[in-house]
Amino acid sequence: MPSALPDGEPVPDDGALPAHALAGAADRPLGFYLHVPYCATRCGYCDFNTYTSAELRGSGGVLASRDNYADTLIDEVRLARKVLGDDPRPVRTVFVGGGTPTLLAADDLVRMLGAVREEFGLADDAEITTEANPESVDPEYLATLRAGGFNRISFGMQSARQHVLKVLDRTHTPGRPEACVAEARAAGFAHVNLDLIYGTPGESDDDWRASLDAALGAGPDHVSAYALIVEEGTQLARRIRRGEVPMTDDDVHADRYLIADEVMAAAGFDWYEVSNWATSEAGRCLHNELYWRGADWWGAGPGAHSHVGGVRWWNVKHPGAYAAALASGRSPGAGRELLSGEDRRVERILLELRLREGCPLSLLRPEGLSASRRALSDGLLENGPYDEGRAVLTLRGRLLADAVVRDLVD
pLDDT of 277-313, one tens digit each? Predict the structure, then answer.
């Protein structure tokens, strides 16, 4: 969740949605994203809407406190129930992200999940995930989450090398994320993810291979691997601008991606989205698939984004302003946009092309179809799926995914 919010039209004080947004809702999956905006320290590469205690001091008072945050977020879940009315859908996925959700007490996360269950109900096979910092959990914490209904957990590992973690300003100890996987398994978590980042300044191919080996050796059933993006305004961007650390070029990112795909395939992991690999269908992150497939989700928390039936909106960023809006009975929405049919067509191409199943060629305009034929002849799209009416990226196509998407959209 990037820190910058787009412009948009105002959100009504009661958060009401246009009637067309709720039409046909019963046929679409519904998920919840619950944002916890707190971090113990700010990582040098992070541009998310997160806050340390020092950053909040004097700028929100008791309203921005971690101590009562769960109650505030539960107020928004109750608002969602009012806005969505008698929507009959049980919630298919819940994802608690941040920030560092596990800075809150485990009981608070369970209460937040409980509010979703109470207001909407959960599907029998609902996927319930939380992100976690490896240093902020222990076996007792994990056992409380599991007993409270969480069945999937995602640990931020980033790297197994200390010097790489130092550049990223990550504070966990190498080896701790791997230990967390074992603790999560012992607590009864069926699905465990490790997040990795490649292309950090100073990282070598050997460093990256060591991180992959350590992650896979820990026994998760899902791994996410993202190229480092240096966002303007971050500490890392300032360090690169001052010449303290070098910028990693695109060729290095491509090489690291190829290494990742090779190593993970050898370990029994299949890619199902450009940056995500799983050992089975059950191991895939269903919540992220809601995003990628344009389903409905409600994002609760400061700066969180939501989408229901072609209406996208986003909340105010600051925890104090967020809490104040809810305390006064108002929606915390900062702005919204009504997506046109063309907007939704383009977004489907942008997102679905990144998936292993690809996107239907029927979404493409004539110019996009011509571009898809060029991509096919250039080895960027797979032949078999293309003959069946779908654009599916090859390995080389995944390396150039952004460029392929631009051509197909144009």
Answer: 999 999 999 999 999 999 999 999 999 999 999 999 9
Say how far apart CA 265 and CA 368 lie, in whole Å: 31
Dig out the tokens for 55 from the structure.
């950053």
Residue that is written with structure tokens 């060729």 in the block:
251
Q: Work out the number of other CB atoms within 10 angstroms of the CB of residue 85.
A: 11
- What's the alpha-carbon Rg for the chain, to the nearest Å? 21
Q: Which of 78, 39, 54, 120 is nearest to 332 (CA)?
A: 78
Residue with the two structure tokens 């992150």: 285
Average pLDDT over residues 101-111: 97
Burial class of residue 353 in the structure, from the number of CB atoms within 10 Å of its CB (0-12 exposed, 13-18 middle, 19+ buried): buried
Report the SS3 class of residue 127. strand
Beta bridge partners of 35: 97
What pLDDT, in 10s, does the model give residues 329-352?
999 999 999 999 999 999 999 999
Rounded Cα distance, 117 and 111, in Å: 10
Rounded distance, CA 18 to CA 353, Å? 29
- Report yes or no on whether pTM surpasses 0.85: yes
CB count within 10 Å of CB 407 equals 17
Of the candidates 3, 15, 11, 27, the one whose C-alpha atom is nearest the C-alpha of residue 293 is: 27
